[in-house]
Amino acid sequence: MSDSPLIDSLTAAVQARPDDLPLRLHLAELLVTAGRGAEAIGHAAQVLAREPENESAQRLMTAALGGATAAPGGAPPAPPGSTSPAASTSPSGSTPPTGASTPSAPIPPGGVSIPPAATPPGGFSAHRPNSPSNSDNSVDWAAMEQELGDIVPPRFAKADDEPDPVEGHADRTFDVEKSTITLADVGGMQEVKKRLEVSFLGPLRNPKLRSLFGKSLRGGLLLYGPPGCGKTFLARAVAGEMGAAFISLTITDVLNMWIGSSERNLHDLFQSARGHAPCVLFLDEIDALGHKRSQLNSSSMRTVVNQLLTELDGVDANNDGVFVLAATNAPWDIDSALRRPGRLDRTLLVLPPDKAARAAILEYHLRDRPVAGVDLGRVADATEHYSGADLAHVCETAAEFAMRDSIATGEIRMIAQADMLAAAREVRPSTDGWFATARNVAMFANESGEYDDLAAYLKKRKHRP
After folding, report:
1. Cβ contacts of 351 within 8 Å, gap of 6 or more
2. 101-115, pLDDT tens digit by residue?
3. 355-430 in CATH: which number?
4. Hey, what CATH class is 172-349 in?
């Protein structure tokens, strides 16, 4: 039980009416006056939690914090009606500070003035113990927040299934790498390398010639062809040849279920590429991001295509030094606006590897396997029209044949020529289905001549029995 009936009554009233802020402030004032600053802190903090700009609560909090820290080392509070020791021992000739008048009662720490309504009943005045005052009336909010972290409850509760707030796009990061692969690591493909040298690498290596002819370091190149023929590997080789940064993008990096997020992700990607210029930006499966808008039923995907066109144009930013390489297996499904000048205006057909490239790929995939007496030339002849992925599968199948015999006989044997030829007969080329579709496009949908190189290849291509 407290020694002040008024404080006890106000405490009970505040418990009954916790939202009555003036009543809570009045109780805090009485607690500060009575030297019970630790109790006043909680009441002032609850008022500040709801009204952070309440000046009375701020002054009370300052006074309560000052009283709470000074109380353990100072004298106990004087009982009501007693005279302050400082008042009785101070010399009569002392002069108050300039501009201040001598108060009729001691002023509590922090400069908090107690209104007449705060005077306890009985006609006596409550006196605070002598303690240093806070002259600048400033509040250390950082210290207050740290001290009251466990006292003040959160203002709003959150349901368990409520998602966390969405962070800004500034925290998004993309994998920017430096490619160590060059065109020398690409087996065969001499025509492809020649086209890349003329359109991309030549202008980069000759800045004076580029300046003379007004060639800008921007633009895009579309790589298309059957799957598994090394379009991604070729893009990395171009980045390594240029000594530029390499950023690879897939549809999972862009598409998002929230409206507008996919467009923002695409913008962030291009901004990252511009910040790392010179940079090769590789857009894999571009037909998924840049599908023909006339064939899209979803309005959200149409806006993604529009955003991609805007970023390629560089309307709001400078794309100099950003080389866009895109790859697709279905160029006929790409929106025609993406292939206009200034965007993906150059097209390069990446065909299945030729004989020299097939031999190099086979040698690469057999380098760490036990091999004896394998004629790579004969195996390359037997794997015409095979993609790079098909050739890797041939080597894997030949290794399985040799391992199966080793398990059956109990003696380890090497991968032989017979294993490679048997694997070539078992593995069928995966490019046949793609060329069946491409033949229809080259024959009946090539009015603009954009698939002339594909039509020329199909005329020379021999059909597999």
Report:
1. 225, 226, 229, 457
2. 444 444 444 444 444
3. 1.10.8.60
4. alpha beta
